[in-house]
Amino acid sequence: MQPPMYNWTYLRSMKFAELGNAIGRAMIRGFYGEGSSHDVNGTSSAFELHCQCFINQYSNYSVKHHFLNGTATLEEHLEDNGGLNIALQAYNKWQDENTEYLLPFLNLTQQQLFFVRYAQTWCSSESESFLQEQLREGSHSPARFRVLGTLSNSPEFSQHFHCPLDSPMNPSRKCTLW
């Protein structure tokens, strides 16, 4: 990985947000598929309920009355949400045993920098017509919805940015993978 996506001089919070998320997404990818969503009794209902929450959430995102297909993009959202959680847990564990300086002139905590860097990894310039086409195609979610959906499901994000309960970035009902 190379700048601007990765730089060895980045703070650990930023490295965990980027690399930790990429590794976490790959780990989650290995957990779904045939048989992986069933419990010891062969029941898949709990996993299906979690999946339905994500489908409903992402299906409500739209651009000019073109809605995202939450079913077609489900695996991507499971990876995004699970990857963020794995990266955040890894960073928190590292932070328990280490200290890191804050960036001067930037009034953000390390946890806030983690989430800012996570969002930056999805940064792109997309025209409205491109977004509408992407929604019609249905195979991938626009980057903005991947960020909004994943961060709004994170209690830690809401806590560190002081998002009011029932605001768009802190809904009372959050989707979880586990």
Automatic annotation (TrEMBL):
Coiled coil: none annotated. One of its GO terms (cellular component) is plasma membrane. InterPro entries: MetalloPept_cat_dom_sf (IPR024079), Peptidase_M13 (IPR000718), Peptidase_M13_C (IPR018497). Pfam families: Peptidase_M13. One of its GO terms (molecular function) is metalloendopeptidase activity. Residues 1-176 form the Peptidase M13 C-terminal domain. One of its GO terms (biological process) is protein processing. PANTHER family: KELL BLOOD GROUP GLYCOPROTEIN, ZINC METALLOPROTEASE FAMILY M13 NEPRILYSIN-RELATED. This is Peptidase M13 C-terminal domain-containing protein. The lineage of its organism: Eukaryota, Metazoa, Chordata, Craniata, Vertebrata.
